[in-house]
Amino acid sequence: MSAVARRYYARGVQAIGSGELQIAVEQLQAAVDLAPAFGDARVAFAVALAKFGDAPRAANVVRTGLGRAVSPVGVAALWATLGDVLTLSGDFFGAEEAVRQAATHPDFAVRAAAGLARVYAKLGRYPDAVAQLKRAAAGSI
Questions:
Q1: pTM for this one?
Q2: How high is the pLDDT of residue 1?
Q3: What CATH number does domain 71-141 carry, 1.10.3470, 2.70.98, 1.25.40, 1.10.10?
């Protein structure tokens, strides 16, 4: 991983934190362009794009990263992020599938349960949403 890509990533994350989304998008895109397998930068880039209002592009950034992820945790993080982005964009069935893929990694079980709760609530499946919230709150899946 290049030190330059890490600097772009750090600046992008800082810009997200301060609400400077245009700067965040630019910095994080540079990080991903320099290091396409840099999973954290790709997730942050997708988050910045989604916050900026470009959920379709954010979803494409994540989908592109799925084939480049270098670890099972990285793959799960990308699936979970894709679920969040698809929920934001209104593709609830796609989001459900993405979150289920993230749930296959034990470290993402709680986040996946919370994501499924959001999806089910959006779909009007309130009993299922409550069940997933209980699972997430209990921390045991």
A1: 0.90
A2: 67
A3: 1.25.40
Domain map of the chain by residue range?
1-52, 71-141
Token representation of residue 133: 């919230």
Spell 102-127 as b/e; 16+ CB within 10 A means b. Answer: bbebeebbbbbbbbbbbbbbeeebee
Q: What is the largest CA-CA distance in the chain?
A: 48
CB 37 within 8 A of CB 68: yes
The first and second tokens of residue 39, run together, are: 């999973």
As a whole number, mean pLDDT of residues 31-41 equals 94
Distance set, CA 1 to CA 6, 13, 35, 71, 89 (Å): 8, 17, 7, 15, 32
